[in-house]
Amino acid sequence: MEHARIPVQLVITTVLAVLIVAGAGRAVVLAQGRGAAQALLVPRVAAPIDLTGYWVSVVSEDWRFRMVTPLKGDYGGVPLTPEGRRVADTWDLSKDGSCLAYGAAGLMRMPLRVHITWESDAVLKLETDAGGQIRRLLFDKAQQPGPRSLQGFSVAAWEFGPGTSPTRGGSLKVTTTNMTGGWVRRNGVPYSENAVVTEYWDQFRGPTDGQWFSVATFVDDPKYFQRPYVTSSHFKREPNGSKWRPAPCKAAT
């Protein structure tokens, strides 16, 4: 039996066409992979936990320091230096309610509600009802701080769990500097403008299966603290903003 002979030119053309199609498909896959990888570089997209929404602080420890204004000189549990105690002892009740108690180093210890939103793909915005404060957590490390302020300059970064799975979990680390100084307690227990505040935010299921987050806060301030002042604060998610009641603090004098 004789077989029909296929022209060599047709064979070459067919092979080239197959190679071109295969190469184009591979290019599309690679481009899609690059696009997905680039998307994961966007902090909002890459977030391993969802902190957006309305939250209320759950005060289960240090109640007498947090829910009411402690007496003058009541700074137990804070590792103050002699200079820190001297400054704390200058406080008096007329200063109660001052915005100095709502600075970055003490804000999350106050009994309050917070509203967290994405202001942009790289800025997480935190608002409080009590004190009427706004913090911006910046994921862009290239951004430079402006003038010192009560909330300072906060640089944020996601810290991911082990592995590569999208569900591997993680937490948020925030480092705050460039503050004007303030109080870690509302009775005038001070931190200086050179303090460095490091926070670790974690999300978890609460005892009744609701969503919670915790903030472990380390305030490092050699001027007023003998060692870092460490606290852990807890917040529970609320379904909406129906209980949101903004109230400003008293301007610092």
Structure description:
- The chain has 253 residues and is α+β, with helices and mostly antiparallel strands.
- It has two domains: 1-40; 48-248, no CATH class.
- It has four helices and 13 strands.
- It has helices at 8-40, 43-46, 63-66, 82-88; strands at 53-58, 113-120, 123-128, 130-131, 134-138, 153-160, 170-177, 182-185, 189-191, 196-205, 211-220, 229-238, 247-248.
- The chain has a nine-stranded mixed barrel.
- A hairpin with a 3-residue loop joins β8 (182-185) and β9 (189-191).
- It is globular and about 50 Å long.
- The N and C termini lie far apart (106 Å).
- Residues 1-6, 14-21 and 27-39 have low confidence and may be disordered.
Radius of gyration: 27 Å
Mean pLDDT: 88
In the residues, how many domains can be counted?
2
The helix/strand order is HHEHHEEEEEEEEEEEE
Detail the poorly predicted runs.
Answer: 1-6, 14-21, 27-39
| Spatial strand order of the main sheet | 1-2-3-5-6-7-10-11-12
Outline type: globular
Quaternary organisation: single chain
How many strands, which pairing sense, and closed or not: the largest β-sheet?
A: 9 strands, mixed, barrel
**What portion of residues belong to β-strands?**
25-35%
The proportion of residues forming helix, as a percent range, comes to 10-25%
Q: First CA to last CA: what distance?
A: 106 Å
Task: Count the beta strands.
Answer: 13
Number of separate helices: 4
Secondary structural class: alpha+beta
